Amino acid sequence: MVIVVFGKSYVSLPRDVLDGMTGALMLNILSLRQLKRLLLKNLYLIRLIKLAKMKAITVCPLRDIILDPSCKDLELDSGAIVFPLDDGKLYKEHFNLEFIEQIGLITVEMFLKWPYFVKCYPVDNSESLAKETLRIRSKLNNLLDCLWFIKDNAANIGGIYTHEEDKKLYYKVSDTAGKSNSKGEFHQLESFGINDIDKAVEINAKISEIEQKLSSDVPPLNTGQRVHDSPYHFVDHSKTNRIERALSFLVMARHNSFLPAKISTYVNVLECLFTTDTNEITHKVSERVAFYLGGGQDNKKSNYMLSKEIYGIRSKFSHGQQLKNGKNEYLKIVSSNADELLRKVLNKVILEDSEKFLSSKLDDFLNDLIFT
Question: For the residues of 185-224, what is the DSSP string, one character each?
């Protein structure tokens, strides 16, 4: 059955009747009686109007990132990455005056400066509109997070904005403090091309395979103009695996621009991956990192000493002691080196050895590296 809507009335029509219809439209149907009369006379020139879905547009600026021309109009999640126009104007297909008034001129400036993601799609109701806004935000955050596996950066989404023009619905998910680069700096531009995006998508897919589908006791969704998303707060953290926990600490480190705290959280990433007991953790983790990454003797020694160095900073900072060398320039160098160390470790773990790191025999695997 298909619903035919006319005015404030409606009627259900059998599929075989619809299949026999030859025609296009009948405008100005005023009553159910008139419709029945037309059907009885086999006059099937009726305009079929399905119960309409809302049509939404979601836009999201990608801040502090340079995308080379190969990324222009790149399709992603049934949407596209759009570059700003050269003449300082907005695409009228994506923005109207009322939407601009809702998000504000300061926000609009981001769409004039940075590339942005846009998606047009149908939704059934306000709740599904809010949920889709959150899903898109999560998808874009995951993509930008995975660019870290390629090189250090401070790319962020600049909030996400959805509007449905007919019903005048507007949703906004605010951007957080944002992710800093390894030196604790924001607005540090790095350039990425189409191959980098493809690699990030590949890594994200691999992480999705590793992540468990844990249920989350999230409170009911607030479908007001501001919607929030924090399902990770409500999962049972006793059931997460060591790679999930390592990635969680990585996100925390990247959101922290205070270098002693950032470096301390980098250590947590390594501990998630390389601890199997509570004995001689500093030495054991540093040694395992060195042998896991391998290379020549000098390379192993360098990685071992770097791991010990960041452990020393973490120990003093976490216990409220004065850092012997707390100068910002020194901490920037250590943090940048630690960030690169983690990048090598996590790329290898996720792309090559995830099964080993999730195995109950991880201790044997790591010990064997030392005696190989």
Answer: -SS---EE-HHHHHHHHHHHHHHHHHS----B-PPPP--S
- C-alpha span between 335 and 58 (Å, rounded): 36
Q: Which helix (H) or strand (E) holds 157?
A: strand 156-157
Cα separation of 221 and 14, whole Å?
Answer: 38
- Which pLDDT tens digit goes with each residue over 245-288? 999 999 999 999 999 999 999 999 999 999 999 889 999 999 99
Asked if 338 and 256 touch (Cβ cutoff 8 Å), the reply is no
Partners of 2 in beta bridges? 13
Separation of alpha carbons 345 and 335, rounded Å? 15
The pTM of the full predicted model, rounded to 2 decimals, is: 0.81
Q: Cα–Cα distance between 255 and 242 in angstroms, integer?
A: 20
Q: Which among 284, 289, 308 has a CA at the least distance from the CA of 300? A: 289
**How far, in Å, CA of 54 to CA of 133, rounded?**
14
59 has which bridge partners?
Answer: 118, 161
- Contact, 183 vs 79, CB < 8 A? no
Kindly provide the b/e burial profile for residues 11-47, where b requires at least 16 CB atoms within 10 angstroms of the residue's own CB.
eebeeeeeeeeeeeebeebeeeeebeeeeeeeeeebe
Whole-angstrom distance, CA of residue 307 vs CA of residue 110 = 39
Q: Is 208:352 a contact under the CB 8 Å cutoff?
A: no
Distance CA 151, CA 195 (A): 13
Compare 35 and 321 and report the one with higher pLDDT. Answer: 321
Please report, for residues 100, 111, 115, 125, 174, the alpha-carbon distance to residue 106 in angstroms, rounded to integers and kept in the order given.
10, 10, 16, 29, 13
Residue 319 DSSP code: T
Q: Which residue in 138, 171, 220 sits closest to 54, CA to CA?
A: 171
